[in-house]
UniProtKB/TrEMBL annotation:
The keyword Ribonucleoprotein does not apply. InterPro entries: HTH-like (IPR037923), Tscrpt_reg_HTH_AraC_N (IPR009594). One of its GO terms (biological process) is regulation of DNA-templated transcription. Residues 25-173 form the Transcription regulator HTH AraC N-terminal domain. The keyword Kinase does not apply. Pfam families: AraC_N (PF06719). The lineage of its organism: Bacteria, Pseudomonadati, Pseudomonadota, Gammaproteobacteria, Pasteurellales. Keywords: DNA-binding. This is Transcriptional regulator AraC N-terminal domain protein. One of its GO terms (molecular function) is DNA binding.
Amino acid sequence: MKLLEKVKPLIDPQKFHHTFETLPPDFHIFHTNKTGGDVIQIEKSGFSVVLQGSKEVQIGEYHYQYRAGDFACYAVDMPILAHYQATQEQPYIDLRFYLPPEQLQQLTETLLSQDYAFPDFSGKKLLSQLSSTLEDALCRLIDLHNSPNDIPILYPLLQQEIIYRLLCSEQGGLLRKITTQGSNAQRIVSAIEWLNQHYNQPFNVEELSASIGMSSTGFYDKR
């Protein structure tokens, strides 16, 4: 995988999370050489692709096995249970990229205005395989690390291309649901964001569901 070969030289073995000095902090590498044991962590909203190694992830009642080349999109910061498979010689490596909500919504609306047919999203198809076009865009973004003078102009364009490639992928149906104003998925995203900000405060489910324009029954059905 050419993306892996570009990322490997940039890894700092002393850090689990590695951001780029020149690129914005919404683009970073995660790696670990430890295997076994369940790790509870928050998966940040955005896009994540496994470059080396594998991991098993539990989200609610669903279990997913990530292998090299698999990617997933997360609508909101989400608690997960992860089990990494790695060795000292071949650490687990993934690349993570934050998706700006405003840009995501703008591109979604543009595609909808052109009658683009988004794939259906069942809620169970979380993983997709990295396409050559998406990998190429990510490689070009990493190359900007060595060309800081190009970043102000080219980074926003590549960011837009990556979001476009994701919208055109199998994950496009999920991304469309969470960015469509008034959809149940978008309302649930709003509720989760509120809970993340007020987790230490008491709340009433009926009042929370009403505040996002849903009945309490519908809210429970969509949890």
